[in-house]
Amino acid sequence: MVLSSHVTKSMRVLNEENCEINCYLEANCVSYNYGPAEDELYLCELSDKNHLQVPSDELEARRGFIYRPVTPNVCVTSPCASYSTCQTGYGEEGYRCLCPHGFHGDKCQLDIEECLIGGHNCSQNAICANVPGSFLCNCKPGYTGDGVDCTGMSEL
Asked: pLDDT tens digits for 96-151?
């Protein structure tokens, strides 16, 4: 059986385990079709629906193929902060959040305060200002430059 009308991605894999892993890595994958292909590889079709979300006639017979729903994809509920990447199939909660540079925390919800921890390259004649995921350097009054290099008027 296969659920063919909701395939979002198709690939060739070595075995069913690789197909299942690819489904976990796709945020919108909730089921997959797996069956023979050519060259000793297998066809893996990832779907954004499972058999419970569609009419029963959308599950079709295809010789040599199997259909598998995966454990609930918790990434669909967006548990990670919006600027991070959710990967399903990890840990006790069933997902993990991959934090972009400048953020941390179990859900990437915490901004790294580069100005407080010294994780910036601002001039000593600049003021460091924290912004989400990064920082800005602004020369102090009486100095000019880009914030990384600030020159005082008396130094000119």
From this structure: 888 998 999 999 999 999 999 988 999 999 999 999 999 999 999 999 999 999 99
For the chain, where are the E strands, in sequence order?
Answer: 2-3, 7-13, 31-36, 42-47, 59-60, 66-69, 85-88, 95-98, 103-104, 110-111, 126-131, 134-139, 143-145, 150-152
Q: Which helix (H) or strand (E) holds 16?
A: helix 16-25
CA atoms within 13 Å, Cβ hemisphere of 113: 2
Angle at 58 between CA 48 and CA 75, to 5 degrees: 15
pTM summary value: 0.52
